[in-house]
Design brief:
The protein has about 210 residues and is of the alpha/beta class. It is about 40% helix and about 20% strand. It has 7 helices and 7 strands; from the N terminus they run βαβαβαβαβαββαα. Strands 3-2-1-4-5-6-7 form a 7-stranded mixed sheet, with helices on both faces. The protein is globular, with a radius of gyration of 18 Å. The structure holds glycinamide ribonucleotide. The site of glycinamide ribonucleotide has 14 residues, from α1, β5 and α6.
Length: about 210
């Protein structure tokens, strides 16, 4: 099974969803849960499930220094993929490039809408009828990498950013394990591989 490190900053409910799916047959295993907040609730949950954890506060460290320490812990764990799950630090370009194509993130909006902070408040303000979450590949453009999967959630009368955040999270817990599982399995999928070969052929310059 593919080895995955999960990075969190908070409660870690998405990490928990990924972990529980891995325990009931998802095609990946969680080999590390790492956080930039030593008090992140998700760390103790991971520990109680017997998953190795690593925590290092970013305070007082340069971004590149903090990323290098996180990267070292991830490499030591043997992870082949990194899943950002409520990791609220922007990563350095070096870190992103090192994991290009092998780092996924979940963002609580229907990308490309509402990249960055406070997507729910912005969606309510705009009068959107649908909100949701997206799992995407991480690139150096914030929340801008290829979208791998989305889940939609209807806005209801009386919704606030908090009620929306809660309902979107429930959808995220279904979405992220499925998309991560599909992504790490893609190497076994002939359709996927054929699609990549075709994309590559199109990207090549015309033969003379
Ligand atoms: C999730 O809703 C996730 O989409 C969001 O933070 C929450 C983390 O919750 N991520 C971002 O806003 C990233 N910019 P969790 O710690 O319970 O998984």
């Amino acid at each position: 099974r593919a080895k995955v490190a999960v990075l969190i900053s908070g409660a870690g409910s998405n990490m928990a969803a990924l972990l529980y799916a891995s325990q009931v047959g998802a095609p990946y295993e969680i080999v590390l849960v790492a956080s930039n907040d030593p008090h992140a609730g998700g760390l103790s949950l991971a520990e109680s499930e017997g998953i190795p954890t690593f925590a290092l506060s970013h305070k007082g460290l340069k971004r590149a220094e903090h990323d290098a320490a996180m990267d070292a812990a991830i490499r030591k764990s043997g992870a082949q993929y990194v899943a950002l799950a409520g990791y609220m630090r922007v990563l350095s370009d070096e870190m992103v490039q090192r994991w290009e194509g092998r780092m996924l993130n979940i963002h609580p909006s229907l990308l490309p809408k509402y990249k960055g902070l406070d997507p729910h408040a912005r969606a309510l303000e705009a009068g959107d009828e649908m909100v949701g979450a997206s799992v995407h590949l991480v690139t150096t453009e914030l929340d801008g990498g290829e979208v791998l999967g989305q889940a939609q959630v209807a806005v209801m009368g009386g919704d606030t950013p908090e009620t929306l955040a809660h309902r979107v999270k429930l959808a995220e817990h279904q979405l992220y394990p499925r998309v991560l599982g599909d992504y790490v399995s893609r190497g076994n999928d002939p359709e996927y591989l054929l699609g990549r070969v075709r994309a590559l052929a199109l990207a090549l310059p015309e033969a003379e």
